[in-house]
């Protein structure tokens, strides 16, 4: 009798294992995503028939892998971490499945409109935002006070440059400013494109003619390279989001202009040596009506080639739900929940109390305008990117040139001239210009 029960139980377990589905999730190695992986016991306990296989990659590598996989219908991944750039382009090519079965209690209407709009096509959501972000200034209040400086809520680039140089001159062991220099369309070019908007520059004019030979781009790149040379860290051309985050947390940066999502990390006393000394301000401007802030959402989408779409959608729903925010809050505190996706979070008194950066984050997200990103008119949408398929390759090539200028391997003029040349060639080859 006992042997029969054991055999029966074993058979049941084997049958269960045979029916369990494994979904493969490709994600970026950012802090919020790492935290999600640690909390997935909550998901698997509620969905014992679904197992999770993680592929965690550095940002540039992730973009390359998922783009290749989805374009070739490789079928390696069931859930992809993708951004505001990819979603509308891929959805229009029928590479993504619409998320139309996220569950009755998911509350799609609660997603911040600016974020939902960038992830939708024809009113259908094609990716669910895990966290949303703009960019802003994070700065050391103690170093500003020591230097006799007051950071405005809405600073100019000129003020930022002067403050960075002054603090660097007074503190040999602290960089006046840390900015992205690592080459990549979503690394240094995300920062520089958003920055260039505030200087009056644009990638293309109304007829898709590249604009790197115009004075606004020269002013942008010269300001950036000279500022980093005078007040930035050594080896800045190798630094992306994660490298600058580490520098700031170690007390090595007086200012850092980057993603609003970094706010919870730089103010977390467990990881940041300057947690109680951080202030926030809007991204700088040049008085032309545009600030140098972007709009982005790292989101979870399901490729059309997935054979496990139902299980994948269950995971996407779990990871981007209001319940997930509450789960993170219960484990890590409200300040550490993924920001920038849900209106209800910014109406939550507990979050407002725990996150001194909440209002500035929301204001920055709402201030970004993907439909009118530049001072002069343009034929494209996107704040820190151009929403055309060719931008991924072109943006990375231009990013390599600008990173080389930062490293001193070529002049600003040469970098801009080559950026103009490769852009004209690509836009002609792709049929945008004759």
Question: Could you walk me through the main structural features you see in this protein, from its secondary elements to its overall organization?
Answer:
With 434 residues, this protein is of the alpha+beta class. The chain has 2 domains: 20-133 and 295-354, 3-Layer(aba) Sandwich (D-Maltodextrin-Binding Protein, domain 2), CATH 3.40.190; 135-294 and 370-429, D-Maltodextrin-Binding Protein, domain 2 (3-Layer(aba) Sandwich). Helices cover 45% and strands 12% of the residues. It has helices spanning 2-19, 31-38, 41-46, 59-71, 86-92, 113-118, 141-146, 157-170, 188-198, 215-231, 241-249, 263-266, 309-319, 322-332, 343-346, 349-354, 358-367, 391-406, 412-429; strands spanning 21-28, 50-57, 79-82, 120-121, 124-125, 128-133, 135-140, 255-259, 278-282, 296-301. A 5-stranded mixed sheet has the order 2-1-3-10-6. A 3-stranded antiparallel sheet has the order 8-7-9. Helix 8 runs parallel beside helix 10 and helix 18 (391-406) runs antiparallel to helix 19. The longest helix is centred in the first third of the chain and has 18 residues, at 2-19. It is globular. The model is unreliable at 9-18 (pLDDT under 50).
């Amino acid at each position: 009798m006992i042997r029969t029960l054991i055999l029966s139980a074993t058979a049941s377990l084997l049958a269960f294992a045979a029916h369990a589905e494994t979904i493969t999730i490709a994600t970026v190695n950012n802090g919020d995503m790492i935290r999600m992986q640690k909390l997935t016991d909550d998901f698997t306990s509620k969905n014992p028939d679904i197992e999770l296989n993680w592929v965690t990659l550095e940002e540039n590598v992730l973009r390359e892998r998922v783009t290749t996989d989805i374009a070739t219908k490789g079928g390696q991944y069931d859930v992809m971490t993708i951004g505001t750039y990819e979603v509308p382009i891929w959805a229009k090519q029928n590479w993504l499945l619409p998320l139309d079965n996220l569950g009755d209690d998911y509350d799609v209407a609660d997603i911040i409109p600016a974020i939902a709009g960038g992830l939708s096509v024809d009113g259908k959501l094609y990716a669910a935002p895990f966290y949303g972000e703009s960019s802003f200034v994070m700065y050391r209040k103690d170093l500003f006070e020591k230097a006799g400086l007051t950071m405005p809520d809405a600073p100019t680039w000129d003020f930022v440059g002067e403050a960075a140089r002054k603090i660097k001159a007074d503190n040999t062991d602290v960089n006046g400013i840390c900015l992205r220099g690592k080459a990549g369309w979503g690394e240094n070019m995300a920062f520089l494109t958003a920055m260039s908007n505030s200087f009056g520059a644009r990638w293309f004019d109304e007829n898709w003619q590249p604009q790197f030979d115009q004075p606004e781009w020269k002013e942008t790149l010269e300001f950036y390279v000279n500022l980093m040379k005078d007040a930035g860290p050594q080896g800045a051309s190798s630094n992306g989001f994660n490298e600058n985050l580490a520098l700031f947390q170690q007390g090595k940066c007086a200012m850092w202009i980057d993603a609003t999502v970094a706010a919870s990390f730089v103010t977390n006393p467990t990881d940041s040596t300057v947690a109680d000394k951080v202030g926030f301000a809007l991204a700088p401007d040049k008085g032309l009506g545009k600030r140098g802030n972007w709009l982005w959402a790292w989101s979870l989408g399901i490729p059309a080639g997935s054979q496990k779409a139902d299980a994948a959608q269950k995971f996407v729903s779990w990871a981007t739900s209001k319940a997930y925010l509450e789960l993170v809050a219960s484990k890590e505190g409200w300040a550490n929940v993924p920001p920038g996706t849900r209106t209800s979070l910014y109406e939550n008194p507990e979050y407002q109390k725990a996150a001194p950066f909440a209002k500035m984050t929301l204001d920055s997200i709402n201030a970004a305008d993907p439909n009118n990103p530049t001072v002069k008119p343009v034929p494209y949408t996107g704040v820190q990117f151009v929403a055309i398929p060719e931008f991924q390759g072109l943006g990375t090539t231009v990013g390599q040139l600008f990173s080389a200028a930062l490293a001193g391997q070529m002049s600003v003029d040469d970098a801009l001239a080559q950026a103009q040349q490769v852009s004209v060639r690509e836009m002609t080859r792709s049929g945008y210009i004759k």
